[in-house]
Write a structure and sequence with these properties.
This protein has about 80 residues and is an all-alpha fold. Helix content is about 85%, strand content about 0%. The protein is built from 2 helices and no strands.
Length: about 80
C-alpha cells in the first residue's frame, strides 16, 4: 500500500515539478507509469488486506469453540481445586 502511494505521489510531484520548471510548456515529462501504477498497487493491497482479514476471521470462528472449551475446563478445574482444599 505504502509503495503504491509513494509511486503515485512521486509521479505527481515529478510531473508537476517538470511543468513548473518548463513554464507549463510541452517540454516537460509526464510520469504516467508512476501515476497509474501507484493507485493500482494501492487497490491491490487493499483487496489483499481484506482477503487476509476475512481468512483470519474464518479461522477464529472455526476455532472459537476449542478456545471456549479449554477456558471452561480451566475455570472448572480452578473452581474444583478451591473446594478440595
Amino acid at each position: 500500500m505504502w509503495i503504491g502511494l509513494a509511486f503515485f505521489i512521486g509521479g505527481v510531484v515529478l510531473t508537476l515539478g517538470g511543468f513548473a520548471a518548463s513554464g507549463g510548456g510541452g517540454g516537460s515529462l509526464v510520469f504516467w507509469g508512476a501515476i497509474v501504477w501507484g493507485p493500482i498497487q494501492m487497490i491491490r493491497a487493499g483487496i489483499r488486506m481484506r482477503q487476509i482479514s476475512e481468512a483470519l476471521m474464518r479461522g477464529i470462528q472455526a476455532n472459537a469453540w476449542k478456545a471456549r472449551l479449554a477456558s471452561d475446563r480451566q475455570a472448572y478445574e480452578s473452581y474444583a481445586r478451591g473446594y478440595g482444599s
